[in-house]
Amino acid sequence: MTDLQKIQLDIMLVMTGICAVITLFVFFTNAMRPRRRYVLFWLELSATLVLIFDRIAYLFRGNASLEGWWAVRISNFAVFFLSIALVFFFNLYIIDLYTHEGALKTAPKRLRATTWVLLAAFVFLVASQFTGLYYTFDEMNVYHRSKYQPLCYIFPFATIFLQLSVIIQYYKRLSKLLRFPILLFTLIPIFATFAQFFFYGLSLSNLAIIGMAVLLYVFALIDLNDTVKKENDELMKLTAEKERIAAELSVAAKIQSDMLNKSYPPFPSRDDFDVFASMSSAKEVGGDLYDYLLLDDDHLMMTVGDVSGKGVGAALFMAKCKVLLDFYSLMGVPPAEMFARANNHLCEGNDSGLFVTCWFGIFCFSTRELRFVNAGHPFPVIFKKDSDSFEFLKEKPGFVLGGMENVQYKEYSVTLERGERIFIYTDGVTEATNKNEELFGDERLLSAMNGTRGKSAPDTLLEIRRAIDSFAIGAEQFDDITMMSFELK
User: Fold this and answer.
1) Which of 10, 208, 440, 460 is deepest in the core (most CB within 10 A)?
2) Closest CA to 89 of 119, 132, 46
3) Which stretches within 101-143 are classed as H helix?
């Protein structure tokens, strides 16, 4: 063994350790896509095994023992076979790169053809074990090249040239960090193989391929880090944007909250009635609305509505609806005509197709008459002293507001005696669900209302909310919950 061969063995030993460590790193890396990690793992493992078997072939060269006989033959076959495997896995790596980073829909036919070329190379390799086509061993168990050995380089060369043609054609489709090692992986082994003919006894082509495999991992890791950095930067931008949106939603929720009457008692100078309302949004901002307003000393306006959808869009639509109803109320427009006008205004420019279900009433204290109109809203619950029970105030509702222009609405009325009350709500109450996806429903609402006898308006709402929470325990609130209670004292 020459000094140059001894140095080569030392180089092989060092590179074996490097490739083994890289193989382990790839195996335990979770940041890579599964397919790329799979291909790179087998590429680096093949490189590690090539070095191990090539070193064994040198160490047992000329060893005529039975152990040496088997070691030399198995190791030389393994080196040739694994060299084919290295080219095969590199080909899979290129396919993966170009179908993902390169954004090609399918792998180029030239890359798919390399599989058949490498299969032919394997067939010739097996045949050479019985014919001595590539190499032979003398009686001292020393490896000798066959005069036909250059044939074994035809298949890898054909494969590499096919790969090189694809790399050159689609060179700019890859990131700059991957172009260089991919190109080197094809060019360096070609030059090393030519040099192999002039330096017998040295594994220049194998060392070149393995060196490129190491370089490929290094640049793949650099590219991965660059990708992770870009994703982190994008995540930071998204996080900042999310925080900005959250801040804006918080402001919107505050504005919406300020639009609603939350004080109690709302009219301290009046003790002849009790009214209060609350809204609990399923999101940062809700689509429900409520309002109560003394139009004069003798008339109280009350309304509860529910906009289709949730979030900012529904909240804005809610605000528009509330302003319209307040305006028409103060103008003295009758309830049915008010809904007709408000409906036409809400239909204008309503490209998002939002609509609102709404119950609106005006109570006259002198006559104790409650005039009301319903646009597709759930029936209110009313307590009547003559029946001493809570029941639904069922009158045929009209069409929703904002759904279609030029709709006519019908006005209804009911008379309230002192001690009688009305409870208006949105469907978030009756459609509250529990973990078994059961609805709270009308019957549970009536049952809960029976527990509110003798309670003030705020306590009535708290009692109903406790009943809902007790029913829906563990289930997430998916809709806004709005309630209003009015009692004539």
Assistant:
1) 460
2) 46
3) 109-131
Phi, psi of 372 (to 5 degrees): -145, 160
Is residue 209 within 8 A of residue 159, CB to CB? The reply is: no
Q: How many CB atoms lie within 10 A of CB 48?
A: 23
Tokens for 125? Answer: 């390799």
CA-nearest of 33, 52, 24, 476 to 223 is 33
**Cβ atoms < 10 Å from Cβ of 251:** 11
- Kindly report, residue by residue over 126-142, the tens digit of the pLDDT: 999 888 888 888 888 88
CA R_g for the chain: 41
For residue 396, report the phi and psi dihedrals to the nearest 5 degrees.
-60, 120
User: 303 has which bridge partners?
Assistant: 291, 360
DSSP state of 65: S
As a whole number of angstroms, the distance between CA 283 and CA 106 comes to 44
Q: Give the SS3 label for residue 325.
A: helix
**Range in 237-241, 244-248, 397-401, 415-419 with the lowest mean pLDDT:** 244-248
Taking alpha carbons only, the member of 371, 357, 362 closest to residue 318 is 357
Q: Which long-range contacts (CB under 8 A, 24 or more apart) does 430-436 make?
A: 430/378, 431/479, 432/468, 432/471, 432/472, 432/475, 432/477, 432/479, 432/481, 433/472, 433/475, 433/478, 434/471, 434/472, 434/473, 434/474, 434/475, 435/473, 435/474, 435/475
Q: Which two tokens stand for residue 269?
A: 């100078």
What are the start-end ranges of the H helices in 260-347? 312-330, 335-347
Would you state the structure tokens that stand for residue 279, as one six-digit string?
A: 């809204």
- Residue 253 tokens read as 């929720």
